[in-house]
Amino acid sequence: MVEEDTAIRKTGMLQPGSTAALALVNVKEGFVVVGDLGDSHVVLAERASPEKKGVWRAKCLSFAQKPWSKEERERIHEAGGKLNRVYGETRLGE
Asked: In a 3-state reduction of DSSP, which class is residue 76?
């Protein structure tokens, strides 16, 4: 593992972070709860129609919460949060 870490660092492509996606499906009561972290998202694939075998429709069930979007910026400010720019990126915090 240490050798792999050293090799990755030498490439200059190391961008530490976390990512996860989760979907809890309650078939009995008919609902889905989804959550995501980082750059992962949850997408539901469903058949377009019974007649069109092999044709699927994708529906996003989670969305990126990026601080540069108007809606997310407003949500952060309404909750008392602050945004700043670090290394050219908008980040949460002071």
From this structure: helix
Position 87 scores a pLDDT of 66
For residue 81, give every residue at least 6 positions away whose Cβ sits within 8 Å of its Cβ, in sequence order, or none: 92, 93
Q: How many structural domains are present in the chain?
A: 2
Pairing relationship of beta strands 83-86 and 89-92 according to DSSP bridges: antiparallel
Same domain, 76 and 57: no
Question: How many whole angstroms separate alpha carbon 30 and alpha carbon 20?
Answer: 24
Query: Does 50 share its domain with 78?
Result: no
Does 78 lie in the same domain as 54?
A: no
Which residues span the domain enclosing 2? 1-63
Secondary-structure breakdown of the chain: helix, strand, coil percentages, each rounded to the nearest 5: 20, 35, 45
Q: Both tokens of residue 91?
A: 């980040």
pLDDT of res. 73: 86
23 three-class SS: strand
